[in-house]
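Q: Here's a chain of 186 amino acids. Please give me its 3D structure as tokens.
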Amino acid sequence: MRDFDSDAGPSIVSITDRVRLLPIGMPVTSVYFLGDNAVFIGAEENAAIVNAKDEISRVAIHGGAVLCAASDGERIVTGGDDGKVVALNAKGETSVLATDAKRRWIDCVALHPDGAFAWSAGKTAFVRSGKAEDPELDAALKAHVSQVGTGDWVDTLLRDWAVRDGKRAGVQYGEAYRRLVLRSGT
């Protein structure tokens, strides 16, 4: 844009004058901020953490394609075609939060401010509480009333689900039905 500037100063302000090029070195599917660091989620295997000095650190997060990501500002949780749900923090540390028993692709992940997280693999959705002392996940489910509903009948329904088999519950999801699998700690 400087080619069009006169001696009196810039005639047009361009976005290219206000951005920095970063050699990430991979296709990027999403970007999040963790503190002062920008985290670029790659399409395959890695994330790139960029600090304020433009230093780039690559972190391996999956053993294949990264299919989805979500962030709560403290961590980024990703799902991959390796069947894993992985958390990444601002320091570049990763931890595997869950692994699908059948190694199915993790299609979608979601985070709740209390630390709970959810993911789907195929036609099955999973929810795990962020609180170790909350194995029934009642609080996490009640926080998402848009998916379950409101009123006293919700408590009755949750108790009935636990009595039925302690693990599976039918919840209408759009036009199809998905199973909501309640799990504690593992």
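Q: Can you summarize the key feature?
A: The radius of gyration is 21 Å.
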